[in-house]
Please model this.
Amino acid sequence: MSETELGKFLRARRGQSSPGELGLPAGTGRRRTPGLRREELAALAGVSIDYYTRLERGKETRPSPAVIDALASALRLDEEEHAFLRELAVQAARRAPEPRPMPSRAVRPSVRLLLESVRPCPAYVYGRTNDVLAANLGGLRLLHGMSDWPPRQRNTIRYTFLHPTARDLWPDWEQKARACVGHLRAVAGTDPDAPDLAALIGELMVKSPDFGRMWERYDVRTVGPGQKTFRHPVVGTMTLAHEVLQINGTSGQRATIYLAEPGTPDHDKMQLLDLAGFADAGPGPGALMGEEAHQDR
Model:
């Protein structure tokens, strides 16, 4: 039996755990690998070393909820990571999962109207793997140079790792990139065999060593509200809050809207981004929000 994603996750997080942080004695002798030994994690979780080894190697695929909870506690996983571990256990126990249909990329007219109604706030509609399915003009221009790519290629995670301007756009690029990878890990936990997910991950593994390094950490994060600082080459540095809205009746579509308090310098820069006729913005939102975006792929 081949190794499961559950086993890969456990091995990765075991390697990142410090014995000292978990209250274990340092012991004697040199460790061949960093992190916890299998026997140490098994002892912390209250399972036999043989059982844990079989679990990590994919030979045991039906751990009980109690075992999963014990492993999560031993590894000190947070709530999101714990939920992800449970989902991996479900996937490991599923002998022959039926492939899910590709999610629709069509964006409802009312959602497109929403994007226009919030201008000058930059706004997007994303698919589950962060394909940009629709955007208003400010949204397309916020990610500087995104419009250089054809609509089918526009994906914020691909942009983060592969576009030449991305590392300058985000002062905290490493943190932004880790969040992108954590989101993909969360998606992989619910639908690991999805063709769109596999294609994106495969491309990034080949083209970005940084993505490969972060992917092997098995960090898990879901998308939520917050704020981001953009070092935009045209309007300058601005910090914008953002809200994420799940779109009902779709397969994982969500809208992200960036905001700033009216009357602030950040809001003024946001307005400039929406109004200025940047040559790099390409054909504008029509190309992204036109008939092509309605087509299922």
